[in-house]
Amino acid sequence: MATNQAKAFEKIKGQLAKDKIVIYMKGTKDAPRCGFSAQASTILKMHGKPFESYDVLEDEEIWNHLDELSGWETFPQIFVDGKLVGGCDIVTEMHQSGELKKVIDAAFTGAEKKTTLVAK
After folding, report:
1. pLDDT grade, residue 118 (50/70/90)?
2. Which of these, 26, 19, 11, 35, lies nearest to 89 by C-alpha position?
3. pTM of the prediction?
């Protein structure tokens, strides 16, 4: 079945705007369906921040068009603060070096600062 790229991009951008951390994966964070997706979601869970997962195997629009938006051809794809961080290998390396913690903490610190500014 053909899918609409513009509709898919709109859906994806909405998902990325809704949550600070998003992983597009095979399966879900609680029921991964491939080893790379399982490893990436486990690493995200270790950081203790909320994140949303979307199962690309269950959503043909995302399966067909996410790579056109992100420029990344494989799954999982991890986004923090609306920006592509990378796939499993990159997220694993960033976790091991401590860089992932900095990126995640900055995303949530930025959210807290925005909230404070709006409240004043």
Report:
1. very low
2. 35
3. 0.88
